[in-house]
Design a protein that fits this description.
By secondary structure, the chain is mainly alpha-helical. Helices cover about 75% and strands about 0% of the residues. The longest helix has about 50 residues.
Length: about 300
């Protein structure tokens, strides 16, 4: 993930500069005292901060205490029948320790940071801007073509933000996050339900945290789906106003030139059913894995 974003560092930097410029232009600075924050996004951001710092700290302590404790690589590759592991080759020990240290201290926190502080923020901003635009269009002080022209202009700028966002995250990052997120959610839930007696404390605490991180992709997909639905509602709202124009065909052509806001991953995009597809796959595969390992 870090490598992918580093390849597109200029696009990533431009994306967040564009978000800041959009807010400075269209969202006036206001006192945040008393403003209610989005509970879901606040929870996800808090989870991202805890996971980015707490999880690597926990795994580093466990690695220092016993590098053969699950889920470390030493246990995975060199466990014995007695449930412990033994590596006699000093060179192999060093390689495994370096790989574990890189995984828990460098790769994991960077990946979680980009998901919660990058992907989530970009998705939530698009949904938030569309909600404000729809509300502002319905409650604007002005009326007629002036209001519609301004709304069309703002919507086009949100479209540009969406294009930049998809350029950064669509090809490899978002699909990778989905695949890894669902996988770790399955493995985390399986370990909690099936292996809670076999894995000692505090190593077992690793699995609820990664399961929560993995399941957060469902909530991110839900927010992305809300942006798509919100853009549909806004375009329908504008379409219903076309009857008030003398040159209806001109207004409708301008409207038809606008596309819905689509958060894309690979060749697909997130719609209303995508979060349920992710959830169904997670539940189905977890149950199947438990049935396959049931004695």
């Amino acid at each position: 993930m870090q490598t992918e974003l580093w390849k597109k560092r200029e696009e990533t930097e431009f994306l967040f500069k564009s978000i800041i410029n959009f807010e400075n232009l269209y969202l006036p600075v206001r006192d945040m005292k008393g403003v209610k924050l989005d509970k879901i996004c606040s929870s996800l951001m808090s989870l991202g901060i805890v996971s980015s710092f707490g999880l690597p700290g926990l795994m580093t302590v466990l690695l220092a205490v016993n590098s053969c404790m699950p889920p470390h690589l030493g246990y995975v590759f060199f466990k014995s029948q007695l449930g412990s592991c033994s590596v006699h080759d000093f060179t192999t020990q060093i390689i495994v320790l370096m790989a574990d240290a890189y995984l828990w201290i460098i790769a994991l926190p960077h990946g979680l940071f980009y998901v919660f502080q990058g992907l989530l923020v970009g998705v939530r901003c698009q949904d938030f801007y569309l909600k404000l635009l729809t509300w502002g269009h319905r409650n604007a002080a002005t009326s007629g073509s002036q209001k519609d022209d301004l709304s069309l202009k703002i919507y086009r700028e949100i479209q540009i933000l969406n294009k930049i966002f998809n350029t950064v995250f669509q090809d490899a990052f978002f699909p990778g996050v989905i695949a890894v997120g669902i996988f770790v959610a399955i493995m985390g839930m399986f370990a909690i339900l099936k292996l809670r007696h076999a894995i000692p404390f505090p190593a077992i605490m690793f699995f609820p945290i990664i399961a929560s991180d993995g399941l957060s992709i469902i909530f991110i997909a839900k927010i992305a789906a809300l942006a798509y639905v919100q853009s549909q509602h806004f375009l329908k709202l504008l379409s219903s106003r076309s009857i008030h124009y003398k040159r209806v065909s001109v207004f409708r052509k301008r409207l038809n030139a606008l596309d819905k806001i689509k958060i894309k991953f690979g060749g697909n995009f997130v719609d209303q059913g995508t979060p349920f597809v992710f959830m169904d796959f997670w539940i189905t595969q977890t149950v199947s894995l438990m049935l396959l390992t049931d004695k």
